[in-house]
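Work Package 4 report. The design task specified in the project plan requires that, given a folded chain encoded as structure tokens, an amino acid be chosen for each position. We show below one input record used in the internal validation round.
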């Protein structure tokens, strides 16, 4: 009798514990905005060329494509990703990676983003991806976000969505933003994202950054979307009437050297001193510092000076890395490293002048045999070693890696010696 009573009590206790856990999950989980879910991915140049026919056949309904970053960098694969996804009947959205440090820069980025995606026809909301904050305050982050979102909507006439991980949704973004813009939330390793206390639901849920999809080589972000991700106002995005757009595209960054004056720099780039002073908020035109980075708006094509039919000089801008420069000019990281005697491919500086030669084919291997690889989100040394038929130990040795478990997106790794 005692054993039976104990058994009944134990079963009741298990039932109550299970019920409590279920209630806890319901309380701390964020629900989708509606029941029907669409399978999606988000992509950028990190994924290289994509076979969208295979992606479509794999059951993917929606693809979010990176369009731009900062106020001058168009994703190298944006146009190709858009055309191929469109040709294969996928639903399309665009996102912009915000780098702004103040509201003025946020507006410039919104104008640049709007210009990049002009003359396209997405059918999903435009997304703001703001996740690298540096030493910005919460107030500044929200002010920048608000400025970017508002200006983008003004120019494109399209609805917006905020992409954010659960932590930032909880601790960074404001209730005001949550009330105005829906949420595309990122949280990995969970069946449902956690409640953030601001948004009542999600319209996008990025649940993995190491997904595998037919038609894509390597990892890709996996998402689920609800019907609310679709635009209520479709149609083409018209090119914004914005006289500053061309100036943004023709902006270069110059690092002050010993002996420089604003007059010398102005003559060199065909501008006037007053323009440099105004653009950089210089208090004393007679006082500039070695190593100071100045933004200069030129009237001609920026940053390049062609010296022959095959050679070009490129001036490094903020946000550049060797992978992007190599892709832009149809050359290789190895070629740029060799031509410019660069000791560390991960260290280039705004204002640095690089010699570029275009006679090599656009891949990551130099004719001499050196191979380089730019780390993408979700990569680890084991995956990279297997991909290039080498070993983790070899990668650690070649790149002098202190912690084999710590590599970061954008880092350039030497795969083999020349």
């Amino acid at each position: 009798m005692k054993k039976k009573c104990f058994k009944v009590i134990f079963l009741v206790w298990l039932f109550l514990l299970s019920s409590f856990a279920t209630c806890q999950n319901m309380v701390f989980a964020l629900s989708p905005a509606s029941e029907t879910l669409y399978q999606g991915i988000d992509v950028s140049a990190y994924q290289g060329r994509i076979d969208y026919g295979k992606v479509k056949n794999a059951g993917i309904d929606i693809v979010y494509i990176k369009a731009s970053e900062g106020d001058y960098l168009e994703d190298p694969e944006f146009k190709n990703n858009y055309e191929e996804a469109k040709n294969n009947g996928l639903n399309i959205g665009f996102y912009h990676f915000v780098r702004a440090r103040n509201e003025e820069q946020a507006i410039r980025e919104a104008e640049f983003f709007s210009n990049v995606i002009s003359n396209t026809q997405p059918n999903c909301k435009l997304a703001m991806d703001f996740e690298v904050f540096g030493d910005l305050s919460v107030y500044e982050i929200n002010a920048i976000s608000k400025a970017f979102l508002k200006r983008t909507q003004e120019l494109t006439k399209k609805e917006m969505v905020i992409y954010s991980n659960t932590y930032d949704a909880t601790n960074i973004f404001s209730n005001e933003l949550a009330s105005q813009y829906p949420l595309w939330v990122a949280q990995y390793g969970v069946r449902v994202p956690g409640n953030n206390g601001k948004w009542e639901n999600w319209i996008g849920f990025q649940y993995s950054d190491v997904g595998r999809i037919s038609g894509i080589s390597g990892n890709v972000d996996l998402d689920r979307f609800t019907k609310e991700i679709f635009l209520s106002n479709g149609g083409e995005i018209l090119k914004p009437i914005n006289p500053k757009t061309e100036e943004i595209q023709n902006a270069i960054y110059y690092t002050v050297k010993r002996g420089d004056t604003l007059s010398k720099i102005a003559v060199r780039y065909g501008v006037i001193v007053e323009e440099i002073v105004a653009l950089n908020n210089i208090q004393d035109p007679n006082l500039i510092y070695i190593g100071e980075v100045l933004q200069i708006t030129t009237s001609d094509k920026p940053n390049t000076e062609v010296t022959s039919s095959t050679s070009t000089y490129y001036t490094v801008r903020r946000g550049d890395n060797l992978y992007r420069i190599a892709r832009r000019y149809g050359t290789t990281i190895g070629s740029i490293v060799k031509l410019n005697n660069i000791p560390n491919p991960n260290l280039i500086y705004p204002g640095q002048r690089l010699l570029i030669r275009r006679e090599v084919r656009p891949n990551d291997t130099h004719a001499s045999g050196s191979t380089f690889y730019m780390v993408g989100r979700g990569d680890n040394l084991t995956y990279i070693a297997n991909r290039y038929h080498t070993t983790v130990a070899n990668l650690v040795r070649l790149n002098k890696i202190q912690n084999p478990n710590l590599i970061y997106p954008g880092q350039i790794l030497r795969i083999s010696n020349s």
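The longest helix spans residues 2-28. Validation will be extended to a larger panel in the next phase.
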